[in-house]
Design brief:
mainly alpha, 3-stranded antiparallel β-sheet, two-stranded antiparallel sheet, globular
Length: about 280
């Protein structure tokens, strides 16, 4: 029998296990290539398991925009990540994306003290941004891709860049320009500690957010049992994107990492949970 209390208390452990497996998987692919074992080829832009092709949906969108043509095989190749996002939301970002995994490694107390002392960076009250900010940014990136005719998504997709650079480093292809792009963005994120890239810019997360419906897994807040004060919210304080899971406009920003639910399970009154059907508020 499913024990929701135990699941939520150990949710972060499960997520960490998936993150570690994802990194090891990316390292294993080029090693297998060097051993002339080619059943699994690719990176997080696109990957092939034997005859099964999987494509990042943002790469599918980019290809359609650049070619101005619709490829059915490309849509089929993107069905698995699209279906995953349709059911569970953009959990890829919080459970499998190597960029998010690396950023979480730098969520250290001493680093936050440096951010506050030298850069005057403090955590603000959790006010969820308006969704139009998210979508204006995404549409702008698409328009730049269309007008200039460049594969912009490829250049700014952190999971794609990290996975391709891991491959290149292991097989001996050297370091490319993408590594410099990643380094600059990553250093900025570590210093500022605000997750601006994940929150506003990443085309992978934005594309996955397009398929969200009222039946997609989401965080539900039970106001009837919540006993936290309005401005004393441990759930929001642990959110890596500085979102408030109890307020509106949580989506499309939230990537369902479940950290707020785990905190509520341990220190709160279990007012947060994952649901697949949206409840009508009173």
């Amino acid at each position: 029998m499913f024990n929701s209390e135990k699941f939520y208390r150990n949710l972060n452990k499960y997520r960490k296990a998936v993150q570690i497996f994802s990194i090891l998987f990316l390292i294993a692919i080029p090693i297998l290539i060097l051993l002339d074992i080619r059943y699994i080829i690719g990176n997080m832009y696109s990957i092939s398991f034997w005859d099964l092709n999987i494509v990042d949906p943002s790469m599918m969108v980019q290809t359609i925009v650049l070619s101005k043509e619709f490829y059915v095989p490309l849509l089929i190749a993107a069905l698995i990540p699209i279906t995953l996002a349709l059911i569970f939301g953009k959990v890829f970002c919080s459970w499998m994306c190597p960029y998010n995994t690396l950023l979480e490694l730098f969520e250290l107390r001493w680093l936050k003290k440096i951010q506050r002392k030298f850069f005057n960076i403090k955590r603000k009250s959790n006010i969820n941004p308006k969704p139009y900010v998210y979508w204006i940014t995404y549409i702008t990136l698409i328009l730049i891709t269309l007008i200039v005719g460049i594969p912009l998504f490829t250049w700014i997709s952190m999971p794609g860049i990290i996975s391709s650079e891991i491959f290149a480093a292991i097989v001996g292809l050297g370091i490319g320009v993408n590594t410099v792009i990643f380094g600059v963005v990553f250093l900025f994120e570590v210093i500022i500690g605000k997750r601006y890239w994940c929150k506003y810019i990443c085309p992978v997360g934005a594309t996955l957010s397009l398929v969200k419906t009222k039946y997609t897994m989401h965080i539900n807040h039970n106001e009837d049992i919540c006993n936290c004060a309005a401005k004393a919210e441990p759930c929001g304080n642990d959110c890596p994107l500085e979102l408030n899971p109890k307020e509106k406009n949580l989506y499309p920003y939230c990537f369902n990492c479940g950290r707020c639910i785990k905190v509520c399970e341990v220190t709160g009154n279990k007012a947060l949970s994952f649901l697949f059907v949206k409840k009508n508020k009173k």
